[in-house]
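Hallway conversation turned thread

IA: we were arguing at lunch whether anyone had actually written out Short chain dehydrogenase end to end. Turns out nobody had. So, for the record, here is the sequence (251 residues) and right after it the structure tokens. Reply here if something looks off.
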Amino acid sequence: MNVQGRTVAITGATGGIGRELCSMLVEQGASVLALCRSQAPLGTTHLPCDLSTVEGCDDAASRLAAAAPDVLIHLAGLQYAGPAEGQDAASLAALLHVNLYAPMRLSQAVLPHFRKSTGALVFVSSSFGAIPFPHFSAYSATKAGIQAYAEALRRELPPEVVPVIHIAPRGVDTAMNGTAAREIMKLSGSRMDSPRAVAGHILQALRRETPETYIGFPESLFVRLNALLPRVVDRALRKNVPAARALFTNP
């Protein structure tokens, strides 16, 4: 899909990847609707929203339906790194709303328009959705949910009218990944990509209307291994659990 002259809506536009992607889209002649709480990136139109509650998602869905974009990119996300029992209820609810409910609700809002005039849905999840990681349990679950939702929509919608694109980056060097998250990824040998590099992959997948993209090697290989031999991956990831848990128990 050529983005020139098209209206592209992006959630999470003020994040590390979001700002880079907004800049690239504006450079290529797209009109960008930035769905975010704070001030929108330069050259975009701000559509204020709070995706951490049901009410906020529903309000954003109404605004988005009225705006009638040509492309919707789901990029907003929250992360919790730590023992599963350590995440408080409010944090868990916000994570579920931003990572899972919002993409579903906002997709519902634009689909009637997309079915009539064509439009692309882009879901940016994570390799943790296909390789669920210890100490990222809720985050992994929401990303797996988005992967499944995108796949189901791809089978439901005519691809020539509404292409559905799913992209799963590995770790990204953004503020969302705090010290604990970075240490856990280091223990597993996971690498991190720059926000600009990931934004470039997203734009390329949109241009080519690539249904499924996993960014990075060997992560893309482990996605396939986890699908075929999950117990092998269980053993590999369990080796790092004691050291990772110590990050949250040591003073």
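OS: looked through it. The first strand starts at residue 7 and ends at 11.
IA: good, adding that to the notes. The longest helix spans residues 89-117.
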